[in-house]
Known about the structure:
The protein has helices spanning about 10-30, 45-60, 75-90, 110-115, 125-135, 140-155, 175-180, 195-200, 250-255, 270-285, and strands at about 5, 35-40, 65-70, 95-100, 160-165, 185-190, 205-210, 225-230, 235, 245, 260. It is of the alpha/beta class and about 290 residues long. Strand 5, helix 7 (about 175-180) and strand 6 (about 185-190) form a beta-alpha-beta unit. It is globular. The structure holds guanine.
Amino acid sequence: MTDARLIDGNAFSARLRDTIATHVQTLRDEHHVVPGLAVVLVGEDPASQVYVRTKHKRTVETGMKSFEHKLPADTPEREVLTLIEGLNDDPEVHGILVQLPLPGHIDSQKVIEAIDPAKDVDGFHPVNVGRLSAGLDAMVPCTPLGSLMLLKDVLGKLDGLDAVVVGRSNIVGKPMAQLLIKESCTVTVAHSRTRDLPDVVRRADIVVAAVGRPEMIRGDWLKPGCTVIDVGINRIEAADGTKKLVGDVNFAEAVKVAGAITPVPGGVGPMTIACLLRNTLVACARQHR
Ligand code: GUN
C-alpha cells in the first residue's frame, strides 16, 4: 500500500490567515473597527511563553491589535480577575485568552468564568460549552475547530463516518466529540480507562488523538485507509540524545496504514492559532453588529 497522504496544516492555516487578513482589512476600511485580542500569561512556563509569542506575531501579521498582559507567577487570583474585568469592559478588546495552565494558587475555572462569554475566544466558558453541546452558535475551542477544518478538507462530508476521539479533556476531547456529532459522525470518546483501546480505535474511519502520551497509538491499531488527526505535541529525547517533537500517534507506523495523517509538527498546531484569529474576528464582528 502507498503511504498516507500528509495533511499540511502549515499550508491550510496560511490560507486561512490570508482570508482572515482580508476580512480584517474590510472591517477597518468600511466599519473603522480593528479586531483586538488580549492574551494573559501568568508565570514563566517556557512552552506557554513560546505559544504567547507566536500568537502575538500572528495577530499583528493579520492586521489585528494584540494586547499582551504578562504577570509574575505569584500574582494573586484577585488581581487576575480584576484584569479580566477591565478587559471585559475595554471596547478595543474583542477577544480574551488566558493561557493555561495557570499557577496552582489560581482557580482556572473561576478565571475562565470571569471572561465575558462574547469575548471568550477559547470557547471554555460554560455558556459557550453549553451552547456548543446544544448545537447553537458558540465560540468553539480552537484546536478542535482547526482539526475539524482539516478533516472536512480531506474527507468532504463526514456524515455517517465512525469517529473515535482518544482523550476527554475540556480543551480538545469533549468539544471535538461535540463537533463530530454535529457533522453526523458516530462518535466514541475513548480515554486512559477504556478497555481494549486498540480494538476501539480499529473501528474508526476518523481517529483524533488527544491524550498527551508520546506515540501511544500504534500503526496496527488503525483501520487501513482511515484519517488520523494527531493533536499531541510531546517533547521527547531521541535515541541520539537530541530533543524532538512527536505526536500521540506513532507516525512511522501509522503512515503505512492510514489514508491521510497530520504530521507533528506542521499538522494541527498551526491550525490552533489560525482558529484563534478566526474566533477573534468573529467575536469582533458580533460585537459590532
Ligand atoms: N494551553 C494549551 N492549550 C491551550 C488553549 O487552547 N488555550 C489556552 N488558553 N491555553 C492553552
